[in-house]
């Protein structure tokens, strides 16, 4: 039986081996993904992102536990991404440490992966690996990004629902209005909500959400209330981003978080956003593939010596970067 | 195509709470370019075998300081083999009396490393055994 047939039957060793093939981008992995692609598109892809130490792994652990405890338990796969060392390419993947309670449940599959040099909070192969798990019949796929700074927003292109995890005391309300990671949230999670400062953190997030609301609203400015109109072309989305408080280590707030996730999924399906996100996700994947393929094709036409020579001239300021490009294009 | 990365599970089975050695090894393997899946303290043999399966690792490193190695190691190796992972290499580190080393090797352990083992020797052994298995 082929690897992909075993994956479709839910064979765990086959799933694991195919994940490796896909991660390493082997021809066998590519061929299997081609076969499996028609079986994908069913799972709810949930992204979990946020700064290092906000409790993403603990939250993922609790989400999975609660999905399994539900009256109709869902099969849950977890893809946890941690950074590779930029110097050695090695990595320590430690997200499983917080997920030990999930051990021994055949309805859960946890896979750790390293970024292998890609930026943006995910690895190149993450999308392909979620497709394998989707085809293998997992209902929910929780994708935990690396500890994200402000611009690791790739997860928004992959997941249907994005949880951005914040904790009290990380930053003031100026942090909250900066562009970047907070903007990609479908649901904001204020974790470690038993800590001091939770009220202030929630106010800052709420303030950020109100500014983003598509109708006019009042803001406090130098002690005056001023009316601010949203840009007329603002995208009007009737999903109002909820904030949910959790204490992930204790499981507090998790039932409510699961309800919001279910509501978001229903919203996506009823509003047509599910299809729109699907299209935009596949668009991103196709573009990435085109880039990789063109890059690989170009690289195979240029010798190492030619490349080194152009780089030398660049370093000596004999060529500009664009002139070097001209020299290296056929 | 990306180079084949060596993936190693570093686990602490049993009840002793000392994970300094396991962390030193995890860090050394990382610095040699391997991907280390670190699972933390107090893992049961079942948890270790399950993690080895889901992560499709090439090697499993067990750190045991409790003296229970002759009980834990055969259980873990059996479970890993029963999952169909015949070529996963198994390494043991920690406090292992000399006379137990041959016994562990008979149980399918590929290398045993006591205190003071140079990390580069462990790295070289893992590389060699994993590449031979491939």
Please render the helix and strand layout as text.
The complex is a heterodimer of chains A (330) and B (134).
Chain A: H1 3-8, H2 12-23, H3 27-36, E1 44-50, H4 56-69, E2 76-82, E3 91-93, E4 108-114, H5 126-135, E5 140-144, H6 155-158, E6 161-166, H7 173-177, E7 187-190, H8 198-212, E8 217-221, E9 224-228, E10 243-245, H9 254-271, H10 273-300, H11 304-315, H12 321-328
Helix pairs in contact in A: 2-3, 2-5, 4-9, 11-12
Chain B: E1 7-11, H1 20-31, E2 35-38, H2 45-55, E3 59-64, H3 69-82, E4 89-94, H4 101-106, E5 111-113, H5 119-133
Parallel strand pairs in B: 1-2, 1-3, 3-4, 4-5
Descriptors for this entry?
heterodimer; A: 330 residues; alpha/beta; Rossmann fold; 3 domains; two-stranded antiparallel sheet; 10 strands; 43% helix; globular; B: 134 residues; 5 helices
Question: Can you walk through the features of this model?
Answer:
The complex is a heterodimer of chains A (330) and B (134). Chain A is an alpha/beta fold. Chain A folds into three domains: 1-39; 40-271, Rossmann fold; 273-330. Helices cover 43% and strands 16% of the residues of chain A. In chain A, helix 2 (12-23) packs antiparallel against helix 5 and helix 4 (56-69) packs across helix 9. The longest helix of chain A is centred in the last third of the chain and has 28 residues, at 273-300. Mean pLDDT of chain A is 87; it is low at 232-236. In chain B, helix 2 (45-55) runs parallel beside helix 3 (69-82). Chain B has five helices and five strands. With 134 residues, chain B is of the alpha/beta class. The A-B interface holds A 12-13, 16-17, 19-20, 23-26, 84-85, 88-94, 96-97, 100, 103-104, 109-112, 114, 116 and B 1-2, 4-5, 7, 26-27, 29-40, 43-44, 46-47, 50-51, 53-56, 83-85. Strand 3 of chain A pairs parallel with strand 2 of chain B.
